[in-house]
Amino acid sequence: MNQIFKDKQDFITQYRAMVRANTGKEFELCGSHDRFYALAELIATRARRIASENELEIENTGQKRVYYFSLEFLIGRLLDNYLLNFGIRDMVSDALKEMGTTLEELEIREPDAALGNGGLGRLAACFLASAAHEGIAFYGNGMRYEYGLFKQEIVDGRQVELADNWLKHDYPWESRRPESAVEVVFGGTSVSYEKDGRTMWRIDGGQKILAVPYDIPVVAYGGKLVNKLRVWKAEPNEDLFDLDAFNRGDYAQANAGRAEAEAISTILYPADAGEHGKILRLKQEYLFVAAGINSILRTFRKEHGSDWKLLPEYVAIHTNDTHPAMCGPELMRVLMDEEGLEWDEAWDIVTKTVSFTNHTVLPEALEKWPITTFKPLLPRLYQIIDEIARRFRESFPSDNPEWREMFQKTAILWDGEVRMANLSIVCSHSVNGVAELHTKILKEQVFKEFYELTPEKFNNKTNGVTHRRFLAEANPSYSKLITSKIGTGWLDDAMELKKLEDYVDDEDFLLAMAASKRENKERLARYIKETTGIVVDPSSVFDVQVKRFHAYKRQLLNIFKVMDIYNRLLDDPDFTVRPTTFIFSGKAAQSYYFAKEVIRLINSVADVVNSDERVNDRIKVVFIPNFRVSNAQLIYSAAEISEQISTAGQEASGTSNMKLMMNGAITLGTLDGANIEIADLAGRENVKIFGLTEPEVVALQKSGHYFSWDEYNADRDRLGRCVDELTDSTFSRLSGTFDSIRRELMDNNDHDLVLKDFHSYVQAWEELTEAYGDTLAWNRMALHNTANSGHFSSDRTIREYRDEIWHA
Ligand code: NBY
């Protein structure tokens, strides 16, 4: 442990001094807001100091640096994380109590930084933490959005979006680095000129924007290493303030130039599956790529000079999905246009440096840009992409009888569009999926042609999550219990959780697990009461589905199950059910009508069920508004059933499945994404699997013999009734009926096979809740899950990236 304070007294003295320096007041006279900022400042100063020591060491040792380009880093709150990693959480918590406040009271003052949408953004944040833990010189490169992901409120059952002004007060962890700002050019014309007998290219004119970096320290567990997340803000590169306009009283015009530049880093696009054609989005993508590449090369030159051949030895650039796909072309541009390298030399460097992760198989999510948008905005980059595309085409094995098909599928420019996934693959030496099944689907379906051409590029890296945040921090009572048996080694090495298997027959331990879960459920029940007013029973089963709302994730299937149980409780006096609280949380993209209707349906069912005294002693439905990292931690730790019910083949990996598994929740899921690996590791007897498998889904879709009306007709009493209740008055009291959902199921033939999987799902749920009756057996299952979740620590994932992709 790197002790940043000698002892508690030392901490208190320094903390008091910081409060005085920041506010001019004594600690006792300050409110929680000032107290939080002073505490954060105190910790951040220490972190920055270690970061600059690390910087020097890396410079001296020539350690390879890994740059992770991601438009999203869903980091959430950091204070607790810093304290845990510096090994001072308990000491600080005691000290604060002595001083008359609590850590919890200060913690909640921190903005919950939501610079990401969902799994992809949170994965990037977990990677920051784990890469630091693994001792990698790892740098996040992203955007500093002024507004993060929207805040969600529920009004009459509907999702309403509000701006997330997270920078309203200062953000204590960041430091602005204006001296490292980078100029980025949009538009202009690409012109050639002769230099030393060679044709060179430059951009004339265009709009010049300044990208200003802000650095956020990333502290490794143990506190010895501190890495950096660098996020970029767009600013006008010179004072674009129009004084004449101002003096005329035209204030909007006076600030127009400034506003246009700053717009680039104003908002995070809130869609988690494609937001095509928006020029501002393309500007964001280029800005953080160009600024990041420039700053990488600046560091390289300082340390290694301009022998660019050495770049791949000292630098790895990883692109998180296709949003940073311009890394390859931009690196080409700088190496050729600014450093004077020839195409072949530059290309060799680029393809040895860049690697790429795909996160989705949904065709609508594969990013494409109209050439008519792209070319005028980035004329030189377009030229380079055109040349990459041409050379790639030329390299084609023309003896292949299927080359036409191949040619079309692998084209970078096609049908008037730039295809970012194909560009990413061609520019990268490694292409990976995020779970075994997902990678298999990439190889055999989505990128089949590329896999045939370059099989050696393709590999799998099953996702992981940081167990220090999602188990240690999120679930203090369970962590304490674990540590009491196996020591603290698991915090460093999650595989040590395996030692817990020694306790599967230890009744006292299993009962202590139940008690810890109960404590967490009470904590969540209090939160639910505060945020929704709904009173839930902590002795009921907590059944949880928390994730973005998407048709393929099938929250609709889950709420159909609830509707069915409700109907049966009303109709059938012999039907019994284990008392259950059905918990939902998550956001829908602002423009995703269907997903938002499913949210409205869940809230409408909740409204009816919770107020129906005939059933509300047995079932309750809760939609927790504004799902984000901070309340996620409360939810995961209190969960008993983990709903992972996507249509097989659609969920690339999932990561809430892993967080819930660690916390001892039992997966109720399809054989999709990482659920398959979870089932294998935990043991089939310790999860509950239902529904069609991926090959079955593919075969059924292909056969053309799926008809949702057949499902409806085959079970008018239960399934058909749920469908009908979408459009009768049963659940329409809050805000009307659900015609569009019914249309999707019946007129559009139920694309996600909700009706098809309904029966096996409800049956699986009934069997699982039946098993809940045996407390010891249930907690034994839970224990097998926690004990085998070490594999899903992002520490393991990062080691695999390091060894097999980055070679760092
Ligand atoms: O990435 C998710 C996958 O759905 C999930 O299965 C996987 O576990 C996780 C981490 O690998 N994908 C995801 O979260 N995607 C996005 O958030 C996203 C965001 C923006 C855009 C596309 C996807 N976009 O096109 O703008």
From TrEMBL:
Catalytic reaction list: [(1->4)-alpha-D-glucosyl](n) + phosphate = [(1->4)-alpha-D-glucosyl](n-1) + alpha-D-glucose 1-phosphate
Function text: Phosphorylase is an important allosteric enzyme in carbohydrate metabolism. Enzymes from different sources differ in their regulatory mechanisms and in their natural substrates. However, all known phosphorylases share catalytic and structural properties.
NCBIfam families found in the cross-reference section: P_ylase
EC number: 2.4.1.1
GO MF annotation terms: 1,4-alpha-oligoglucan phosphorylase activity
Full protein name: Alpha-1,4 glucan phosphorylase
This protein's UniProt keywords: Carbohydrate metabolism, Glycosyltransferase, Pyridoxal phosphate, Transferase
Xref: Gene3D superfamilies: Glycogen Phosphorylase B
Family named by the database record: Belongs to the glycogen phosphorylase family.
Source organism of the structure: Enorma phocaeensis
InterPro entries from the UniProt entry: Glycg_phsphrylas, Glyco_trans_35, Pyridoxal_P_attach_site
Enzyme class: transferase
Upper taxonomic lineage: Bacteria, Bacillati, Actinomycetota, Coriobacteriia, Coriobacteriales
Swiss-Prot/TrEMBL cofactor(s): pyridoxal 5'-phosphate
Keyword Glycosyltransferase annotated: yes
UniProt-listed SUPFAM superfamilies: UDP-Glycosyltransferase/glycogen phosphorylase (SSF53756)
